[in-house]
Amino acid sequence: MDWQGIPFPLNGNIGLLIEKIPHLDITTSSGFGWDTVVASVAGGIIASAIPAAIAWWSIRNNNRTLREDRQRQFEDFESSRKTQITIADESRKAQIIAANRLVWIKDLREASAEFISSAYNTLAQCQKVVALLNIFDNQHSQSQVAVDYPDSIMQAKHDAHDSFVRLVLHTTRIKMMLNPERMEHIKVMGLMDDLKKHAENMVKHRTNIDGDKANGSINNFIVDMQRLLKEEWEKAKKNS
């Protein structure tokens, strides 16, 4: 039996047949879609701004890196240039010092040789004066009146005086080239003073030359001066 519809109860099975889906018409306002336009424009701006910002940031970092690299290169160049200038200055100073030291060595060697020659000559002249004075005194020991020295003695005394002056000159010249604070220099200066004093005392006290003492002082002077000159020569070779 077919169902007679509402309000009659449904007995048995029911099947619902949908023959057609109803058509739905949805209408909107016919105004212009500004929201779509704004969204599109905003999206475009954002889409283009992000790569531009990334590119700007990359360019900015690259420029900063280039500036820093150039600054480091400049600083390295300046440091290298200053180092080269310092090395060149030190080398030039060393060469000047070495050249001056070589001149000093040459002058000191010549002055030392002149001193030795002058020392021997002064000692010989003083010995001659002493010998002539002793002969004169023996010859006039019994005389009751004063007797003038003969020309030979006066000439000998004059020669001894000139020789002594030259010895003082050579001694002073060498001393001006030495360092009074270095022990090896002080020793050399002491030997020169000993020889000068020995010659002076010979005439002053009319004593004969002490050959052993004089030769010992001269030999020591030569050895010490040779050692000093060799030391300075080695320094000059290192600085050249």
Keywords for this structure?
4 helices, mainly alpha
Strand content: under 5%
Can you count the beta strands? 0
Task: Write down the overall mean pLDDT.
Answer: 82
Tally of individual helices? 4
Largest sheet: none
Query: What's the gyration radius in Å?
Result: 59 Å
Tertiary shape: rod-shaped
Oligomer: single chain
Order of helices and strands: HHHH
Structure description:
By secondary structure, the protein is mainly alpha-helical. It has a domain at 109-139 and 148-239. It contains 4 helices and no strands. It has helices at 34-139, 151-177, 183-205, 211-239. The termini are far apart.
Q: Can you give me a brief rundown of this structure?
A:
With 240 residues, the protein is mainly α.
